Please model this.
Amino acid sequence: MILYAIKLRAVAIIGVLLIHISARLVRQEVGSFEWWIGNLVDSSSRWAVPLFIMLSGMLLLGKKESQWDIITNRIPRLFLALLFWSFIYSLWAFRYDIGSYSFTEFAINLYQNDIKYHLWYLYAILGLYLVMPLFKTFIQQGKKTDILYFLFLSFAISAISTTLSYLFKFQLANGFEYFLGYGGYFILGYYLANTEVSRKTTNLFHLLGIAGLLLTILGTWLVSAQEGSLNQVFYEYLSITTPFVSISLFLFMKDFGNKPNSNLTSMIAKYSFGIYLTHPMVLDVFRGKEFIQLTGISHLTTHPIVYTAFMLIIVLFISLLLTLIISRIPVLRKFV
Model:
């Protein structure tokens, strides 16, 4: 794999962990010290999921793979992983009262994507896989101006819709902006990886990325303080700020990330999918009342910087260990 892609995958999974770890901090009183640490961490990690989608587009859209291969191999494999982990997490939700578990409720929640917060990503990627043959045809036969127009349109509509939805409490019809937005990230990854971006344009995107990050941090504070509770309009992956931060980091790694990777970086990148799938379960354990009573460590009692660092290290490495174990079990390895 391309060296900078390995680095991007490793930092992306760390970013995802930081988003989920900081989630409880940003639910504290707006403007408190704990809230500010959570806001800084969360705002500074919102590029993580877009980078994963961009990496998928970068690595798959240029791959010589027939539509039949996608339909018969890639999609079933991902769908089975979705079914497996949805079932595992549906059981996990009833771990204190397994007798109340219902297969009917599981089927309904699976259909509604209402089992565990991180599994939405599998639904999104599954949808992108389904339209990937169309995207391949588009980038192979379309002009550069066609691709740029699609990217502009997808992110503009997504950002406008997201902003209106959060700030004015109404939403554009149908929700087509989500298809356009995540499809935009998918094509954007391929485009940036295979296009020679000028130094002037790269520097512009770095400036926009820095501005986007600052706007996310300060904008979240302003709108949240006004409402008295967390407003996530700038946290959204399809916001007016996140795409610029994501593009900046992608271009930075493309320019400076082609040095050899450490063994740890390569391992985290290799098993990032498994880490993504298992980490909420690990988080639940270390946020659970049993662990808090045993250690006294929680987002309410521990210094927020210490809490974030501790949770990141422990969740990352236990999730990695779980993934390594699962990957060595023949019947389960295909699910990580």
User: Anything to note?
Assistant: Residues 86 and 110 are 7 Å apart (CA to CA). The two ends are 18 Å apart (CA to CA). The longest helix spans residues 199-227. DSSP finds 14 helices and no strands in the chain.
